[in-house]
Design a protein that fits this description.
alpha+beta, five-stranded antiparallel beta sheet
Length: 150
């Protein structure tokens, strides 16, 4: 590697994946600005992202959509760095899924952001590893989402 190439790479400081994620996020923000708080447009953006997923990631994300629709219909679908999620009326992300395939990890992550109300004393979990979607997982996610919006 030449000194010039090495310098350019270290100056950039971001991997190709990180640069792609930044571009994807900018695109998301422009689309969200256009759509405003339109519930249908938000859900469509989430479903479009889910449609591109495979296997367990797709199953987990579809499960989250179902749970949110049942227990927190006030949340609006919103993509979050290319991940499907749901935001409150202020547009702040409440819950999202980080698909395993996106980051080449062994499990998907169900994450909750600051507006969620999962507080439990001085310490509580805001992210959960999810290997599969089943009745037990759906029950726990339902409890978490219900608490998050309470």
């Amino acid at each position: 590697m030449s000194e010039k190439t090495e310098s350019r790479e270290s100056t950039a400081g971001l991997s190709a994946e990180e640069r792609a994620a930044i571009k994807e996020r900018a695109k998301e923000l422009r689309a969200q600005e256009k759509a405003g708080k339109n519930r249908e447009a938000g859900l469509k953006s989430v479903l479009d992202v889910i449609a591109k997923l495979d296997g367990t990631d797709k199953k987990i994300c579809e499960g989250l959509v179902k749970v949110v629709g049942e227990v927190a219909p006030e949340l609006v679908g919103k993509t979050y760095y290319g991940m499907p999620g749901f935001a409150n009326a202020d547009g702040k992300m409440v819950v999202f899924v980080q698909p395993a395939g996106k980051f080449k990890t062994r499990y998907a992550t169900l994450g909750f952001e600051h507006p969620s109300h999962l507080d439990d004393g001085d310490m509580w979990a805001t992210a959960f590893a999810v290997l599969d979607w089943n009745a037990a997982v759906e029950k726990r996610v339902t409890e978490l989402v219900t608490a998050a919006v309470s």
